[in-house]
Task: structure prediction
Amino acid sequence: MNNAKVEKSVFWPSLILIVVATLLLVIFRETAGPVLEGMLSAITFQLDWAFEFLTIGLMIFLLWLVFGRFGRVKLGSLNDQPEFSRFSWGGMLFTAGMGTSIMFWSIVEPLYYYTWPPFGLEAESNQAAEYAVSYGLFHWGISAWALYAVPAVVMAYSFYVLKNPSLKISSACRGVLGKYADGFLGKAIDVLVIWSMIGGLGTSLGLGVPMISAVVGDLFGIEPSLGLNLVIIAIWTVIFSSSAYFGLYKGIRKLSDWNIYMALGLAVFVIIVGPTLFLLSYFTNSFGLMLDHFWKMSFYTDPIEQSGFPQAWTVFYWAWFAATAPFIGIFVARISKGRTIRELVLNVVLWGSVGSWIYFGVFGGYAMDLQLTGKVDLIGFQAEHGDPSVIVAVLNSLPLPVLASVFFLILGFIFLSTSLDSASYVIASVATKELGVDGQPARWHRLMWGVLLSALAISLTMTGGLNVVQTTSVLVAVPVLIMYVLMIISLVKWLKANDKNHVYVKAS
Result:
């Protein structure tokens, strides 16, 4: 199982691209930054309509899959059973997709919407406060997880039904590309996917390391510094490399289980010790607003007023999720043997959305309560000391602040690790020639990517190039738009062509 051969035509170009691109970004970061930011701005403003129509189109396609007869198609052979319990499966779905991002943005993002609200609302008004959490529920809810679910379904069908022996996005496009999936075009797609994962690393670190550094600094009375950041990355490297080394069953699954237990535990603690009734009422109101304005939010481009709000938030998020979706899709496909298409779609969308909604409802609601009641001026902290200081201020406002901070710190390390050990597992899978249904990439291969990702993180942290890497990965979202179309056409062709050979599971 661990003797799978490396796909040299993907492995070496990916390795060379990452090393060379990182060196160039480090050397020319001062000039590269503004250029890439300009390109990103051009994409979000000129392709806002494309990303918004794509996202809604994917949701309609998923509804067709779930409620049509193909929803009962089993992802595997007649006797294939799920490898993981529903809890472990759901935990891995959520933690691979979110990482520390949900810990960070669930607290910070509502404050941005309060001070820069959508639809031309007055900043810091009661209406702005009503939309502060509802827009977070929208951005991290069903639409986002629909972007993740489509590649997951196509990859799982390719791997478990068609028995394509490799976990590559190029394989998921084979229905359209045909023989070209094995040629230069297919290799280019796989290398592109690996680069998008590197961008995912950039974001996880760009948010996670400063946040953890700020909490550590507050706990031990030391100033956050480059040295502290490097120590944090070193500890994180040991955790996630060990998990990746032990593999999917002993490492990643167990780490994800602990992650979910602790994440829920922290949320329950805040509900109990915080303004419980306000949190429940505010979430209910925010959820209703999100549902009521779902279509307005989904197609909001603001072409007349041109505030830039939908481009800076909604379109950026859709581009970001689209860029990282192939990675999540590959990982989710790998852990979904024996499930049905309907089961896979519903669990990805619902587990992901509910987990995100809980965090925004609890932590976003709690942060807004601190701000609105005047208990803590989080916006003042944000303006003077930056976003990580907001996290520290929120933790210090809780009862038993030291205990809460330590717990938050451990959870942050685990969240970082579950995302990144999934990444090293997937990169190794993409760069492996033939994995087979029950195979795993070689241990040295998984570990090598873990070490390389850490080395990359350290070099970019030392030179301040993480934001640049994050921006470049979002630029990948433009070709990914085309990739989505190829995957959907491939899946529809396969479903219709193989209809008589499918294993259909009766609805229970």
In short: The chain has one domain: 8-501. The domain at 8-501 is CATH 1.20.1740 (Amino acid/polyamine transporter I). The chain has a mean pLDDT of 86. The chain has 21 helices and no strands.
